Amino acid sequence: MSEPIMKEKAISPADLSEEDTALITAFQVGDKAAFDKLVLKHKDNLFNTVYRFLGDYQEANDCAQETFIKVFKSLKKFRFESAFSTWLYRIAMNTCKNRLKSSAYRWRKRTVPLENPEGSKGINPHTEIQDDSQSPVNELEKKDRLELIQKAINSLPEGQNRVVVLHDIQGLSYEEIADITGQKLGTIKSRLARGRLALRNKLEGRI
Amino acid sequence: MECARIKDLLSEYIDGALGAQARATVEKHIAACKGCKEKLASMSALVEKLGSLEPVKAPADFLEEIHERLKPRFSFDRIIRKLFTPFRIKIPLKLAAAATMAILVFYVFSIQQADKTLLKAPVISAPKDIAAKHSAGLGGPVLKEESKRDVHIPEETEPKGLKSEDLMTARKSMTKTVKPTLRMKPEQLPTDLEKPSSVAFDRAGEPIELAVLLKPGVTSRAHTPYLEAESASQPEIDAGVGQKESPDTASFKEKAPAKKGYPAPRHSEDTLSNIEHITGLAEGRVLSLKHNRQSKRLEFIDVEIPAKHYRSFCQDLASIAELRSTPPALSDKERKTIQVRIKLIFPE
Predict the structure, then answer these.
(1) Domains contained in chain A, number
(2) pLDDT of A119
(3) Banded pLDDT at B88 (limits 50, 70, 90)
(4) Are residues A43 and A79 in the same domain?
(5) Residues A118 and A139 in one domain
(6) Is A10 left (phi over 0), alpha (psi -120 to 50) or beta?
(7) Exposure pattern of B145-175 as b/e (b: 16+ CB <10 Å)?
(8) Which of A66, A148, B43, B211 would be B173's cystine partner, CB 3.0–4.6 Å?
(9) Binary contact (B50, A169; C-beta < 8 A)
């Protein structure tokens, strides 16, 4: 009998809240450098989340920057009613949602850039994951697997995609996801279950 | 039936989110059902795979790009900064811009002033229908009234000697002329003074006043006995058209008949003689003279000439003296004769 997987959270907003609170307070009294520290602290987690949502490195870069710009413009009004990370992810979710709905994004999805005929999706060459095996075959297989997983994630309905990414990739709890998305716990659980099943069906025997 | 219910619980079972009873139910079912056990294994592997995906990191210049995007674009401050900083280079540009603006403002202001002066000139003082009445031989008290008004000017002038009096006369002339410093040459006269021009028009029926600056060495003192006698006996005004002809006028008529071919004066520097001469050439006649009571100098010469010879008269006048203003154009084309008052200004 297999034991339930007790996932280790990548980020615990509660753990970071004190530092975030200090930085936000400093920014609100005029310390612009505090914003830079907030960006440096959260940028990689946010970027990975946005990338998993969109599946495109350039789009993810643009969307993540736009998210922090919105944060910069609204941070003085932040009232600490929720964790900063929750607020940050909420802004990122809405930004990604708007991006996915935008006609420009849809147009880019239909077109194939000349410099990258295989499509703009996929991991940026500069950020490719290192393979410890050093074997070109293994490296290629791993790259294919990662691309396959990413495509499967992006093929999920938006609600399931969001919950799978936030829970299984970013390691957020049901409650945190509920805070971010504004949905009930039951909805989060059922969407996660359906998303996982859908992914299992798509990827069974291929990874 | 049992498998479908267990399948919905597998996701929460993997996360350890089930209660003790639900968890026990799932474990009991999995132990007995091979299919659900495989599903659980594959789903657990998937979740593990998703959790172990290498995180994709933001580019190295992520923060710099945010800073760049946060910079105000096309804002007023940015434009000002571009134009005027660094100060070491841009201050001369500022000064150059300010100097250019000052020159432009001065230029526009001077043009406007010149336009205003043109609109004000010239001022003629005479009743409207004087020329018509004179040509009809009616004349009478009209010119008398005008003469009284003319007399008023020198009477107000304080007798401070010849210099100051002449200066005041010159100033008065300057205020009534278009451009005091403009020196008109015969070739610069309007080509057709009988047509409306943008310079000035005479007032219909009133004498046209022309101020002329005498050339040095030319005197306007009365050279003939009749002028001296007239000046002594009647200092303010010499004669009026239509009045009982004075000896002066009669003498003029004798000396300067209004016919072309009038003999040229023997002394060309004599302004009065010259004006008499050009009046004769224009088939006109001298009506009256006016002297200053103190200086005994001749101040005004009133002449009457045919309207058709007005242009040539002005050209002739410009050849013997310096016109201080552009002769006004004739507004009434139907007029046969016009009266011209020549104001003499003496050089200092």
Answers:
(1) 2
(2) 44
(3) low
(4) yes
(5) no
(6) alpha
(7) ebbeebeeebeebeeeeeeebbebbbebbee
(8) B211
(9) yes
Confidence of residue B314 (pLDDT cuts 50, 70, 90): confident
Within a domain: residue A3? no
Overall pTM surpassing 0.90 (yes/no): no
Instruction: Determine, yes or no, domain membership for A177.
Output: yes
The answer on A22 and A101 residing in a single domain is yes
Tell me if chain B has a CB within 8 Å of the CB of A82.
Answer: no
Does B201 or A185 have the greater pLDDT score? A185
Residue A45: its chain B contacts at CB < 8 A? 55
Q: How confident is the model at residue A197 (pLDDT cuts 50, 70, 90)?
A: very high
Residue B58 has its nearest CB partner, among A64, A129, A192, at A64
Q: What is the pLDDT of residue B11?
A: 93
Residues in chain B closer than 8 A to A207 (CB atoms)? 46, 49
The parent domain of residue A179 ranges over 134-207
Which residues from chain B sit within 8 angstroms of residue A169, using beta carbons? 50-51, 53
Q: For residue A45, is pLDDT > 90?
A: yes
Distance CA B11, CA B6 (A): 10
For residue A9, count other CB atoms closer than 10 A to its CB: 13
Interface of A with B in 101-120 (CB under 8 A): none
Residues A89 and A157 in one domain: no
Q: Looking at residue A152, which CATH number applies to its domain?
A: 1.10.10.10
My answer on whether A140 and A116 are in the same domain is: no
CATH number of the structural domain spanning residue A26: 1.10.1740.10
CA distance B87 to B189: 54
Residue of B nearest to A173 (CA): B15
Assess whether A161 and A117 both reside in one domain: no
Cis preceding linkage at A157, omega within 30: no
A114-128, A146-160, B308-322, B328-342: the lowest-pLDDT one:
A114-128
Eight-class DSSP state of B340: E
Which of A122, A145, A180 delimits the end of a domain? A122
| CA distance linking residue A31 with residue B81, whole number of Å | 24
B62–A64 CB contact, under 8 Å? yes
Q: Are both A16 and A93 inside the same structural domain?
A: yes
Question: What one-character-per-residue DSSP string does B169-228 give?
Answer: HHHHHHHHSS-TTPPB-GGGS-S-TTS--SS-BPPTTSPEEEEEEPPTT---S--SHHHH
Q: What is the mean pLDDT of chain B?
A: 67
> Is 0.90 exceeded by the ipTM?
no
- Closest partner residue to A47 (CB to CB) among B7, B50, B57 is B57
Q: Do A200 and B43 touch (CB under 8 A)?
A: yes
Which positions ≥6 away from B210 have C-beta within 8 Å?
Answer: B314, B317, B323, B325, B327, B340, B341, B342, B343
Domain boundary among A66, A101, A122: A122
User: Same domain for A99 and A143?
Assistant: no
